[in-house]
């Protein structure tokens, strides 16, 4: 009996010792960490590249990260966080997702009728889906379901469209799209190419009447280096974006102005 | 007196090396021996904790366990004490010496339940070593552990560049290397008595 008592006493004493040491001698926590944590959205989405909001706060306090990495932070919170950290408030480049395809049912050819689970990932597993163009939006709404902000709409003609005013740039749809046709682009870019297929004009024309035909008219209208070509596909250089007028020269209207 | 301690130290570091002859603490021996740098960090942490735990457990052995005749509870008490000790040391270190805390880093909590730490404490209690003798023995054992770890890590670093047969790649060649190292250490037997 006495042995049990002694063991209990040892255990309690040790527990007390740990508690007291941690309380009175423990490393002081930075008081800024709580304030910063309050400013973050707390969604732990991982958009900043760290394991959750708390980890990001730690990285910021250690100077490993800047306050502008969080995609969900409002401009006011960002300014506050910057002043807490004592760093210069930087412009937080807002990014939005864009679905690089405009081949809805009226323009794109279906080579098969897909009658399975309404999910793009499943459709791709079954012989690569029904749409003939392998770079086309399947329009089954996987991206819309994964979007935490409800920013993606599936149109009546089965095409995913991002509403940029609702998009917070969390990258979730980009990761989930089995066709890899959703891109994260700077919100201030004025034009986007709504096609992702670099295949030859002949192949593309056979499957979709809304595809980029690779005519280079836009590249000629834009300045050097603003539009590059990947096969038969025009690609906007988002580091040096062209003017919105470029969209007017496109004969197939595949270059779209941002709203 | 001096000769006795010298024999104790040589015996603990080389002859009865904790890893290579007593086969204790194999988990960190295989786990953190891929790089020399981490091996040095782990070795340092083990020396630190084992010296401290040798001192404290032998004090407890002499002042608490023996007078109350509760030696049969030794294992439980020692595990409890060592784990609590490491926790306290970790908190204190974080405050008093952040540089050392950073260097030991993840290895400190890792060795709370390392069998080499418990093993050395139990060997001391079994032999009924006095407080000074147990502290010396435990720190010497830890040096032996660190020595084996560092030697093994440097061999493994060289092995990365060597052409290893497909079937032996990974843990297989590591275990073979460890056994050759252990055989080499058996050459020390008879030294220091």
Can you describe what's shown?
Chain A is α+β, with helices and mostly antiparallel strands and 259 residues long. Chain A has two domains: 32-92, Orthogonal Bundle (3-methyladenine DNA Glycosylase II, Chain A, domain 3); 95-257, Alpha-Beta Plaits, CATH 3.30.70. Helices cover 32% and strands 12% of the residues of chain A. Chain A contains ten helices and eight strands. Chain A has helices spanning 2-24, 32-39, 52-61, 75-85, 120-125, 142-146, 172-176, 201-207, 217-221, 246-249; strands at residues 95-99, 152-154, 160-162, 182-186, 191-193, 227-230, 233-236, 255-257. In chain A, the strands form four sheets. In chain A, strands 1-4 form a two-stranded antiparallel ribbon. Chain A has a two-stranded antiparallel sheet with strand order 2-3. In chain A, α2 crosses α3 and α2 runs antiparallel to α4. The longest helix of chain A has 23 residues, at 2-24. Chain A starts with a helix and ends with a strand. The mean pLDDT of chain A is 84. Chain B is mainly alpha-helical. Chain B has one domain (14-186). Chain B has helices at residues 2-15, 26-31, 36-65, 74-96, 98-104, 107-110, 115-127, 131-161, 171-186. In chain B, α4 packs across α7. Chain B is globular. The two termini of chain B are 15 Å apart. The chains are: A alpha+beta (259), B mainly alpha (193). Chain A binds chain B through residues 2-3, 6-7, 10-11, 14-15, 17-18, 21-22, 25-28, and chain B through 64, 68, 70, 73, 76-77, 80-81, 84, 87-88, 91-92, 94-95, 98.
């Amino acid at each position: 009996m006495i042995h049990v008592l002694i063991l209990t006493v040892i255990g309690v004493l040790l527990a007390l010792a740990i508690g007291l040491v941690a309380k009175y001698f423990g490393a002081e926590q930075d008081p800024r960490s709580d304030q910063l944590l309050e400013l973050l959205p707390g969604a732990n989405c991982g958009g900043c590249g760290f394991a959750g909001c708390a980890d990001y706060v730690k990285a910021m306090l250690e100077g490993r990260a800047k306050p502008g990495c969080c995609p969900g932070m409002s401009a006011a919170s960002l300014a506050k966080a910057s002043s807490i950290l004592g760093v210069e408030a930087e412009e937080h480049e807002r990014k939005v997702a864009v679905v690089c395809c405009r081949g809805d049912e009226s323009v794109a050819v279906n080579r098969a009728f897909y009658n399975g689970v309404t999910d793009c990932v499943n459709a791709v597993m079954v012989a690569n889906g029904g749409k003939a163009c392998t770079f086309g939006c399947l329009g089954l709404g996987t991206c819309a379901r994964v979007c935490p902000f409800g920013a993606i709409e599936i149109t009546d003609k089965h095409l995913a469209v991002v509403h940029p005013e609702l998009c917070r740039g969390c990258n979730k749809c980009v990761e989930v799209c089995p066709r890899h046709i959703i891109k994260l682009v700077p919100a201030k870019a004025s034009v986007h190419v709504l096609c992702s297929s670099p295949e030859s004009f002949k192949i593309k024309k056979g499957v979709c009447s809304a595809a980029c035909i690779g005519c280079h008219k836009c590249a000629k209208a834009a300045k050097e280096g603003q539009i590059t070509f990947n096969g038969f596909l025009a690609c906007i250089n988002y580091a040096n974006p062209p003017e919105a007028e470029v969209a007017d020269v496109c004969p197939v209207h595949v270059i779209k102005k941002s709203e | 007196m001096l000769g006795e301690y010298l024999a104790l130290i040589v015996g603990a570091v080389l002859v009865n090396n904790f890893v290579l002859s007593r086969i204790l603490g194999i988990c960190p021996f295989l786990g953190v021996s891929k790089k020399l740098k981490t091996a040095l960090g782990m070795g340092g942490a083990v020396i630190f904790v084992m010296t401290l735990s040798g001192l404290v457990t032998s004090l407890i052995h002499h002042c608490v366990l023996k007078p109350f005749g509760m030696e049969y509870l030794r294992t439980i008490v020692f595990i409890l004490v060592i784990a609590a000790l490491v926790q306290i040391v970790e908190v204190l270190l974080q405050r008093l010496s952040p540089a050392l805390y950073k260097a030991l880093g993840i290895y400190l909590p890792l060795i709370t339940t390392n069998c080499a730490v418990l093993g050395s404490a139990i060997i001391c209690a079994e032999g009924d070593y006095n407080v000074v003798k147990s502290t010396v023995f435990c720190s010497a054992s830890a040096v032996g552990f660190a020595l084996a770890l560092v030697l093994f890590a440097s061999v493994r670093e060289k092995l990365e560049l060597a052409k290893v047969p497909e079937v032996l790649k990974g843990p297989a060649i590591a275990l073979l290397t460890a056994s050759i190292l252990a055989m080499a250490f058996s050459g020390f037997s008879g030294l220091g008595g």
